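In the lab's daily routine, each protein ends up as an entry in a very long ledger. A line of letters takes care of the sequence, but it says nothing directly about the fold. The three-dimensional part falls to structure tokens, numbers that each stand for a local backbone shape. The outcome of that step, for a single protein, is printed below.
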Amino acid sequence: MINKLKILILAAVTVLVSACSDNNSDGVLTMVVNRGDFSVQIPAHGELEASKATAIVVPGGLRGPQSLAWIQDNFSRVKAGDVVARMDPTRESYRLQMEQFDYDRLDLDGSMQTQKDKTISKELLAGTEVTSQERDLAERFFSEDERVYTKIEIIEQMRNQDYLDAKLDFYDWGLTQHGSQAAAELELIKLKQQGLNAKISRYQNNLSQMEIIAPTDGLFVYQAGWDGTFPVVGDMMFSGFTIATLPDTRQMQAKLFVLESEAAGLSLGKKATVYLDAYPDKPFTGEVVQVDALAKPREKDSPVNYFQFTVQLDETIESLMQPGRQVNAQVHALSKQDVLTIPNQALFQKEGQYWVYLKTSKGFSKQQVTPGNRSLNRTVITQGLTQGDVIALTTPPKRSRV
């Protein structure tokens, strides 16, 4: 491959030297404008992936972030029902134990509250019974006969009856209020237990979904995240997150990236040639079927932006085309025959005006031209030049211009 590249470079240099001349007295490097074929090739690189794949995702019912404790090796064969990844249950188990402890503690609080309520109720009932008996005795032996009791004693008996009446009223109020308060306290405990029950159910549900199961047989391939990194032990996983795929290797495609500055002409339907890094002498053809609308960096905090696009391959050889294999590609953005082209370095422009320096018998003159399609190194000229014209490849010195 390296020898072929050297031969191509040598041939290009030979063609350039043959097309250029520096025989003028000012030593200005020139070239003869000729007609020929023009093409725009967009270089890209990336990797193979399956056109269709079954996603393996973190269970949808898993609540909250979970730490990845183990994951199956990348590119390993799995069977339907195999465990391919497992979350760390330590944190969820600890939380479940703490919530169950709080629930049991509330059970004890409820039992204690019930016993306390019974005790208070018995005390109030006993006080009511004793006070009633005292009231009956006070009424039975009450006398207003001044021959037996002095006025002071009679008043004291009346005040004692009033006191006992008030005491009975207090006990009645206490029984009523205590019943309502006791019911409210027990209801509060039940409400707290309902909240704990919801948490306990959530943690139990999480613990029941710590293992991720392969839905079908296939090749287990890691799924890169938004930053291009693969899942590793210790990563935080969220519900619905895709950790891997089981690709259908019968139909492969190339996921490719091209620099934003080199993506001019990239669009749907363009033909492409793809080369596997492992088999550079075996080209595969395909067609661009998807192009991202916006360029974005491939690595976190990188200032370099790439367009991602997909090439659907016309042929798949399963023994060679494994998911993840690195590839290079050339997208055939444009191809024209029999057109005038010049090197980009010979074309000058300012404020929307384009020109070249055309060699005449009196020197170099500024010749207005109309550019057409452009590649990384050449530009099509649609007006202003004819075949056989000689132009400067650099800006001529002022003494050479007319």
Observations:
- The two ends are 48 Å apart (CA to CA).
